[in-house]
Amino acid sequence: MAHFTKPDEGSWTEHFKIGTEPISYEDSVSPEFYELERDAIFRRTWLNVGRVEQLPRKGSYFTKELDAARTSIVVVRGNDGEVRAFHNVCRHRGNKLVWNDYPREETSGFCRQFTCKYHAWRYSLEGELTFVQQEGEFFDLDKSDYGLVGVRAEVWEGFIFVNLDPENTTPLREYLGEFGKGIEGYPFDKLTQVHKYRAEIGSNWKLFIDAFAEFYHAPILHGGQYEPEERAKIQKYGYQALAYDVDGPHSLVSSWGGIAPPQEPKMVKPIERALRSGLFGPWDAPDIGLTTEQLPPAINPTRDPRWGMDSFVFFPNFMLLIWRPNWVLTYHYWPTSYNTHIFEGTAYFVPPKNAFERLQQELAVVSFKEYGLQDGNTLEATQTMLESGTVTDFPLCDQEILLRHLHNTAGQYVRDFQQRQAKPAAPSRS
Question: Fold for domain 47-169?
């Protein structure tokens, strides 16, 4: 972790040498570019698909639709307790193996084996083909040759990641870099009260990451969420970031809690005063075994007492927000086309001890939902006008440094992929 405070001279953008010229959003309106992203990014990087709490015992499983990567996977805890992932396809005729009433919907549950709905081929939790209906009708069939196609899966701090690239040699922990190492030790396992949102958004996946990677828009777009006195102050001064950082493809913005901390009652709404909670979470932080000063080094890297939240973007589509009041948000952006994606927002809390604490958490989650709806609606308007082609170059301010980094990174992945594809094959030896 190298860049904790703003440089004495210049800007964050100049400090990281990312470039200050206007940018093009062609990467967000081009169907051809999206098709390249699918192979260059989503089939070759580590993707977070869930947490270990979704697999509480041997035989627990869930499926994940990865449209951008052109596949569906099933993630399962085996009889040996290990977490594994497989392409969700039967080896007989290519039917989707695990699904319920609707093949395109994700599902979860418990089983002792996987059975194909089409011809009843069966597979163990470790992916071995164990039973073939009327096996004698086949020609020299060796079941050991027809196990499920595995996907590399690794677990980091309870988060399950997969990598669909069979040639990938980069371990997950190495891929997550300094940010990942600097977060290790945060007690995610204590935050088991989970609330989830899912929405289909009519915009390119990167545009929603853009919205959550800067605070420049918040005083305007979200101004209606504040009391008039607070709104006037925020619109005048904006939100302040304590630090920005980039590490390879990943990025971080660390921020303080706003102009008025939630403890100032005149600045918040009556329901927030009554429940002592709001967008920033319950005001009374639960005990997670660590004080603010004891948090891992990547969290509140400046160790500023005004710190309120860190937002980590783990490329390509996993955002992890750690809040001072000891709760966590995750965002996932799953592309379904060049101008549509599925947004998933998940809030993690320490389980409430009483009804009041439950209401505090639910108010925080509902507040987040309202902000997310405002962002999603705006992004659909953005997408339509970007596609008009009326304007092709857009200036970004210093607070939008992480947007610039994200689009630069996606472009570089695509260019690297194209170069690899263009290389001639090595001559074969006769």
Answer: Rieske Iron-sulfur Protein (2.102.10)
* pLDDT single digits (tens) 202-233: 999 999 999 888 766 555 554 555 556 655 55
Q: What is the 3-state secondary structure (H, E, C) of 122-189?
A: EECCCCCEEECCCHHHCCCCCHHHCCCCEEEEEEECCEEEEECCCCCCCCHHHHHHHHHHHHCCCCHH
Query: What is the model's pLDDT at position 11?
Result: 86
pLDDT of residue 262: 46
DSSP 428: P
Q: What is the pLDDT of residues 375-419, one digit of tens each?
A: 778 899 999 999 999 999 999 998 899 999 999 999 999 999 999
Residue 94, token pair as written in the block: 């290519």
Q: Where in the chain is the domain with CATH 2.102.10.10?
A: 47-169
Enumerate the CATH 3.90.380.10 domain ranges in the chain, comma separated. Answer: 12-37+178-418
12-37+178-418 CATH: 3.90.380.10
